[in-house]
């Protein structure tokens, strides 16, 4: 069963952990760990069965962080899992960057390759290429559902599993949350992450009781999201609880 990782600053994550609202999976933003390591020190003392995946920060920063920075953040929290560089919607550049990163990465790290492409065929070719490069896990980003040629991560997964036996991650909740939840029911999906229930709760927006097929909100994440350190309102708590209930169905 997939696990849900809230995405937020380390103080907020610690507060959610103390409320038993986190799981055995954390996706952390490498640039945030780099800039605020003191917020995440508590995670270095996590139980051994908790998996931390260090993201490449492409969504936060507009481009993937240098591999050395991702590795430094991973080393700080003693996790071997790192997300390799990718370029949104660009299969060829993603494969080139993935291959280049693997050439310099120490063999003790476990790697997550991110699927990109502008068609189903490109995405599946990306799977084949990443299999050949021996990544350890494959991630499906939310941007795939915005592509009119692809639309659904849930519908992609059966085709992907015919090409690889690797576990999968879903990166981010999309504007099709029902599709996300259906995708999470596939036994090969290890986890999904999202900051959305947190910033929605801080903004007074409720996650509905029943998972909808349409976007959770037309609002976008506040530009000062990362500056709202440790803000855990009652609605944030309810929203995170709701997402966890959806994923665990």
Describe, in short, the structure shown.
With 249 residues, the protein is of the alpha/beta class. It has ten helices and eight strands. The longest helix is centred in the C-terminal third of the chain and has 15 residues, at 234-248.
Structure commentary:
The protein has 249 residues and is an alpha/beta fold. Strands 1-8-7-6-5-4-3-2 form an 8-stranded parallel sheet. The model has no long low-confidence stretch (mean pLDDT 96). It is globular. 38% of the residues lie in helices and 15% in strands. The protein starts with a strand and ends with a helix. Helix 7 (153-161) links the parallel strand 6 and strand 7. It has one domain: TIM Barrel (Alpha-Beta Barrel). The protein has helices at 10-18, 30-35, 58-61, 67-76, 91-104, 120-132, 153-161, 177-184, 196-202, 234-248, and strands at 3-6, 25-29, 51-55, 81-83, 110-114, 137-141, 168-171, 189-194. Helix 5 (91-104) runs parallel beside helix 6 (120-132), helix 7 (153-161) runs parallel beside helix 8 and helix 9 (196-202) runs antiparallel to helix 10 (234-248).
């Amino acid at each position: 069963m997939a696990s849900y990782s809230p995405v937020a600053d380390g103080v907020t994550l610690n507060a959610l952990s103390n409320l038993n609202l986190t799981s055995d999976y954390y996706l952390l933003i490498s640039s945030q760990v780099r800039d605020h390591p003191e917020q995440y020190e508590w995670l270095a003392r996590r139980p051994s069965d908790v998996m931390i995946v260090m993201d490449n920060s492409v969504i936060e920063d507009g481009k993937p962080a240098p591999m050395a920075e991702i590795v430094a953040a991973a080393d700080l929290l003693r996790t071997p899992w790192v997300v390799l560089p990718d370029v949104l919607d660009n299969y060829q550049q993603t494969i080139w960057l993935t291959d280049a990163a693997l050439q310099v990465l120490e063999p003790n790290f476990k790697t997550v390759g991110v699927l990109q492409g502008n068609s189903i065929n490109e995405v599946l070719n990306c799977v084949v290429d990443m299999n050949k490069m021996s990544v350890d896990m494959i991630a499906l980003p939310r941007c795939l559902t915005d592509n009119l040629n692809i639309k659904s991560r849930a519908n992609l997964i059966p085709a992907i599993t015919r090409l690889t036996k690797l576990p999968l991650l879903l990166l981010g909740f999309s504007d099709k949350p029902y599709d996300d939840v259906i995708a999470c029911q596939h036994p090969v999906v290890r986890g999904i992450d999202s900051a959305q229930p947190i910033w929605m709760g801080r903004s007074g927006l409720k996650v509905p009781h029943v998972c909808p097929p349409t976007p959770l909100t037309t609002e976008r994440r506040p530009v000062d999201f990362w500056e709202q350190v440790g803000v855990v309102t009652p609605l944030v708590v309810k929203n995170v609880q709701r997402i966890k209930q959806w994923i665990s169905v």
